[in-house]
Amino acid sequence: MLGDEAFRLAKEAKDIAADHIPAYNEEQVRLVTQETRYLWTRIEEMIASLNTAVADQQRGGSSQTYPGSSQPYGLPNQQKQSQSQTANTQQSAAQAEIENTNAQTALYFLTLNRNKRCLLAYHHRRAQFLRSLLWTLHLASSMIPASLSLRLSSEEQSYARDYARLNSTYRDAIENQLCPSDSLNWTADGELPPRDLFIEVRVIKDCGEIVTENGVVNLQAGTQHYLHRSDVEHLVTIGYLEHVNPS
Amino acid sequence: MARRNYYDIDDILAGQERVPCVLRADLDGLGSAGSGGGTSKVQRNARWGLPYWMADRLNEEDYVDMEVSPVFSKRASRMYAASPESMQLRAICQHFYQFGLQLGDMVPEIPHVLRNMYVQRVYKVARIAQQGQNVEALDFVQSLDKTEARMLKLCQQAQSAISLWHKNQAYALKRAAVVAAAATAGAGS
């Protein structure tokens, strides 16, 4: 059925969850764009044939409006009638043909638009996923896990890089204007209000030394620290540290 | 009717539901997958189940006569009114509400049917989310359509968030879901 390929793409876009994205389906995208191009050439053909058909009919119609002028005088009446009858059936057949072509053009055009909508929605949804992914990873496109970046197309990867770059330029500009001597925490989780200033963290992966307000802290795997929340929050989100809960 | 979002995946999926139609003109190439041929003959007056996105517009132009989908026929509506909680919506139509909203332009009774149905069933959804699943609820959970299933999931998430908050764990920092998923995938392989 027309439009089924595009529907498959839309279903795939539906599978995108907060922590999962299916691989970019280049094959399916190509199928859909191919079908769409084919439909477009068919539409052009059909419109061209419609135009000639309508022009033909108009010529035929104009000759019929003045039957007396085109008919020789001496023709018997009966013959005249049968001639106009065949002309009539011919004309109605042509009319039906035009109607069919009209309907088909409409059908192809609808499918074309549907394909376009599915394609755009598919890519839109994936771009949306990429943006939210970047924000949780503190806008560092290099932090995207390898298992995920395998599933992105090269265009999507460069989109992620460009988005991060554009975003950092914007952030720098804002910070320069508002608070030139300070930096803002842009990627703080707005849905999770901070409660404690200091948190207890356990180190899962070595992060080396980090510089905090109270001096340098060496974060070695297996050790536990009591640190300023804002200093280590990003390390917790990317999985290097673990928040130990006071219970 | 409120304008639907062009990029809304759910709306796109719901638009794929078939509605019975009678063709008023020959629509050759309807059944083909596109670039393959487009030569298959489809004659007028044939009955076809067309996807709604196609049928609706062709109906406007009078190229087909669209009939009301059996999902929302008069008889079905009476059944819905009789026992909304026992309907197997998932089996009837996966996108019951979304599809109903799209059809609402054509049949003015549908929004009422949808509303009655939803209001009666959503109580039960909320109750199940609070009580946790039991055998009795399982049947009902399996009869939910996509919209209701999403509702159930949201209710359950909220419920577990409350219990976390009771245990004083609501403010724990967690690593991002993507990173966690990638880590478990890496450990698994």
Automatic annotation (TrEMBL), chain A:
Residues 58-95 are annotated as: Disordered. This is DNA replication complex GINS protein PSF1. CDD domains: GINS_A_psf1, GINS_B_Psf1. InterPro entries: GINS_A (IPR021151), GINS_bundle-like_dom_sf (IPR036224), GINS_Psf1 (IPR005339), PSF1_C (IPR056783). Pfam families: PSF1_C, Sld5. It comes from Coemansia pectinata. One of its GO terms (biological process) is DNA strand elongation involved in mitotic DNA replication. Residues 77-95 have a biased composition (Low complexity). Residues 58-72 have a biased composition (Polar residues). Component of the GINS complex. Required for correct functioning of the GINS complex, a complex that plays an essential role in the initiation of DNA replication, and progression of DNA replication forks. GINS complex seems to bind preferentially to single-stranded DNA. PANTHER family: DNA REPLICATION COMPLEX GINS PROTEIN PSF1 (PTHR12914:SF2), PARTNER OF SLD5 (PTHR12914). It comes from the Eukaryota. Residues 99-172 form the GINS subunit domain. It is found in: Nucleus. Belongs to the GINS1/PSF1 family. The gene is PSF1.
From TrEMBL, chain B:
This is DNA replication protein. It comes from Coemansia aciculifera. The lineage of its organism: Eukaryota, Fungi, Fungi incertae sedis, Zoopagomycota, Kickxellomycotina.
